[in-house]
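SAMPLE LOG
Freezer: B-3
Tube label: C17
Construct: single chain, 665 aa
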Amino acid sequence: MQQPEINQKPPNIIFILTDDLGYGDIGAFYQNQRREEGKPHHKTPNLDRMASEGMRLTRHYVGAPVCAPSRASLLQGVHQGHANIRDNQFDKALSDNHTLASVLKEAGYTTGLVGKYGLQGREGNSPETWQAYPTKRGFDHFFGYVRHRDGHNHYPAHKVRERPKVELYAGNEEISDQLRGAYTTDLFTGAAKKWIIDQEQEDQPFFLYLAYDTPHAGLEVASTRYPEGGGLDGGVQLIGEVDNYINTVGDSIDTYIHPDYIDQGWPEPQQRFASMVRRIDNGVGDIIQLLKDLDIDENTMIVFTSDNGPHRESYGYGEYDPTFFDSFGPLDGIKRDTWEGGIRVPTIAWWPGRVSEGSMNDSPSGFHDWLPTFVEMAGLPAPARTDGVSLLPVLTGENNQHSGEVYVEYNQGGETPGYEEFHESHREQQRGQMQVLYLGGYKGIRYNIQSADDEFRIYDTRQDPGETNDLAASSNNFDTLQQQMKNRVLQIRRPDLSAERPYDEMPVPALVDPGNIQPGLRYWVYEVITPWVPDVHTLEQAPEQSGITERFDLEVRTRDRHIVLEYAGLLEVPETGVYTFSLQADRGAVLRIHDAMVIDADKEYDSGSAITSEIRLEEGYHPVQLIYARAEEDGTPSLQLQWSGPGLSMQDIESKELSHQPDNI
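STRUCTURE (predicted):
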């Protein structure tokens, strides 16, 4: 990354998340192609301009194909194999761990959330009693919907068709009674603009998470045309007066169809949907103009995307399906599917002078990659807990291929729609337990999983985005890849009792062929100040010392404070079974086996306490990594890692059980 000039603030960051916007719903991704083919299409001129001035990520994936788990993976930088919110766990409390907001706040950013949240916790009914209210998860400012279901009504002060009045919060105050006639797309745009303006009076960079609740159903539209202009003096403006909260409040609600769509002969639900998307497009253009008016556009990155594939609900506005505009683009699947149309989302990154104009990248990446990306932009290492890899080298053109991992899991009892646009093998496909993994450049996907032995369908989604040519069993190489995928999905995730899977009881496979191994662990010592246990691959500093050690101990340290140690090697498991690991440290540490998180003793870790965790391991060799970090604490550094299992009482891991592969150094 190009470093900021002396005295220049780190870049501002705006992450814009839409609700149920399909991959094909943006002109530059698919609607413009429909226009050229003479088919019904809707328009997104501001987003198209944003794409022409930035980068399109054309194989970017959500954590899960529905909003709550998708947003949880985004905010905490972990895939669904490690997230505490999975499947359809709407309104479940986001765990008290690192978030996009908390890490950027640590880096000196002011943090704000405007829009839909839905991760507050099911207990409580107020900002004081909700366990994971946004201001308890790193956000300095919150304006929007707390509950998931409230986001189905886009006029909070009104009953609309099948949805009642709902609550909306400004900070800790519930203000829905002040919002007569206020449409949430405009309301959130206006609130975002006002907050950005307020931040420019402060000498801090800002992070804004703007989460629109549209175009998800109900299919409610605005009351008036979008105001002329944009930015400081035009567009939507937040007035803040009771019954006149924004300047688009009209005499009636839910009536404005964009003129481009009135005389097309389209069904009303389709006119409404197109008008909803256009309103988001207006809002994005308004915000970009504001950045230009404030002269901060060249020091601000905007990311625009969606939380999952397109929906098929209308909530009282008539029959609606995403087939009229092919909102899924050239892909099969919709919201709740793990076919490409359910999990691949339209994503644009815009940063004048840093992200190349009109660029495109099709290497697979995921929502959990944004946390390490933004932390790198802020000048800090990523927390070791993250499953993501920074996208910054891709965005700035330093690297064309992203090295991160794409992993998705989800469970839903329905079926893929039987749309004629979909390949016949995907139509009316029973969903059930679903799983997606990218490995070796190929997508593996399983539907209605019954056991860990179920076969993956394997696709080259770069050449075959519609997933029509299943490559599984087509050659010996794909037979090998099949087994590698079955092993890999067990090596990168942890079971969750609240979201059980058919493969939870399977042991984590050992390495098939560890090759040449030698005694001892490799270790690296970094003399560095970090605010958390870091992903050592994101440290700018080179190690002060490295070598081989017999065990996990601190004798290799070079000093007692401001230090990070990484141990990596192989753990020999003597017998297949359940093993319990116990870790105790004076400050913090993170333990992974393969890429599965076994112990996370970092944020909220009670110094000196023992944390235990069970994992089922197959007999053989398993990669192990332990990262320990210490800041300015007084006293002697301490670290103890023990294990127990079949035939083993709780004890230190002996040197004979630890080794490394010198060929991989």
